[in-house]
Amino acid sequence: MTKVKNERNTENLVRDALRSLGYYDQERTTVVAEQKTNVEAARKALAAASKTGGGGIGAPEFIVNDPANPDFLIVVECKASKKDHASSAIPQIVSGIKVDEDIPACIARVKRFAADGALHYARFLSKDFNVIAVAVSGETKGTLQFSAYLHTKGSPHPKLLVSKDKIPIEKFVSWKDFIEHATFDPDLQKLRLSELMAFSRQLHDFMRDHAKLTESEKPLLVSGTLIALQNHAFALSYGAYDPSALQKQWFAVIKSEIEAAKIPSAKKGDMAQPYSSIAVHPQLSEGTKEYPKGILHELIRLLDEKVRPFISVYHDFDVVGQFYGEFLKYTGGDKKALGIVLTPRHITELFALLANVGKDSKVLDICCGTGGFLVSAMHQMMRKAVTEGEKAKIKECGLVGVEHLPNMFALAASNMILRGDGKANLHQGSCFDKGIEKGAAAFNCDVGMINPPYSQATEDLHELEFVRQMLTCLKKGSIGIAIVPMSCAISPHSTKAILLQEHTLEAVMSMPDDLFYPVGTVTCIMVFTAKVPHATSKKKTWFGYWKTDGYVRTKHLGRIDQNGRWAAIRDGWVVSFRNRDDVTGLSVKREVNADDEWCAEAYMETDYSDLSPSLFEREVKKYLLSLVSG
Predict the structure, then answer these.
(1) Is 174 left (phi over 0), alpha (psi -120 to 50) or beta?
(2) Pairing of strands 541-545, 504-510
(3) How far apart are CA 16 and CA 18, in angstroms?
(4) Given this model, what pLDDT does residue 423 score?
(5) pTM confidence score
(6) Does residue 218 sit in helix, strand or coil?
(7) What is the mean pLDDT of residues 240-248?
């Protein structure tokens, strides 16, 4: 007699797998529901999905959500027979090819096959959520068939869920691992970054209208709140405090978290002090008709909902720096005159790749700002670390930063705490202070990265003096990388001669003209070998013409990688730098001295191979138009 397939057996196996991975643990925040959900937006979406099937499709067997990651859902569809795992239409669906079939055939396919059903629900849920759609078929534990797909919010079609190594996920994993696999998807990264930037503008407007904070206090409120939300008790209870008590508790928790972090005791007061003015800010403790629990409560709620899930996943992203840069766009006056030129995230990533940082590297930034270079370097180092001991060593002595401004120092230190790293060796003070110089040099760092303050008025604080100071603090033979105004490369300055007397100029790369938009500073990247005199090395310097990074200027988002070109361009740049390729129109090698111009434009041969009459005509028209409009 043929055994009748029973879908309940499959569901029991799924339930057991979820239980073994901690989905049902009471101390976890994941919520597993069967045939229903308490998430209002998901419930409405599933009602619409059911109606599409004439009321006969129902709901997925399992729906998993987690308040800590509110924009994610997992849906699971089960079938007893592996013959009903997926229809022949699935490859087309995940490739974005439209499947032409009438409604009854579509309903029949969705009802019969596990993968088709899971993706059907994901299509409706993806209007509001990033959905991981899971199909499981079979009745015995060792022979279950498993497929997982990702339908990102707003995307027209799903795709196969793969790991960061591009390997399909073929079994149940923990909620954390599912989310991590999903967030490595480039489309999802772009989506979440776009959402974060949109929220940063929303938050700025809210603070402007309700909080009355100064420009320097706004990023501090963001970083302080994110630190406070690291405290599990505070994250659960902040809604229970009245407005005035919440403000006191906010500051108390920040101080507690700073105290718990393994920062030198002498520096803990330096880090906590900038938050003290916010702790007594009168507008934050006032309840209003619109926000009866107070403005601070609403700010904490927004950051808890919109930002905390982001930083829990994207450890290589300088969230605090990104908010700081976004807030600067709305600041009156000339940011360049203030020396505030924050390094774009893709450039901090590029520095780490050019330096080829590894798990044993020691990275120094003597003008660390919000810590963008240290964050990117740590990400690359942690990726190459294997053991917990290696990871602990990176956090304990692999990162060294110096920042002169107290507020910036607090932001940099908060960045490290948010990444579970209280051991980054951060120093508050001038990098030219002999005590700080001696302390930084004692770490024997072998990689230096710097974006020095720009447009300083006094000659002794020229950008190249910061570069020289960074190289002084590195051990002999180290790589030092700096991004500086192009004027440093082409204008005469006495420090150029001193740099070549003490160090080797390995390479200079001309960067896109609008890299720091809206600040109009044209820059280049300089690469040195520390404490090996240029004449001794007997090397030609390599000059790269890196004027196109794939980023485009947009009205509301600034410069963005709109067409996804950056990854390929970045990899090409890194390879050409490492090989010191000599390519007409792109790079060239030359012997230079302090009196020469240090830029590719001065030495490259023009490539005329692509010149055509139409191109010439277009450029002439552009020139004439510029004359008319000017």
Answers:
(1) beta
(2) parallel
(3) 5
(4) 60
(5) 0.74
(6) helix
(7) 91
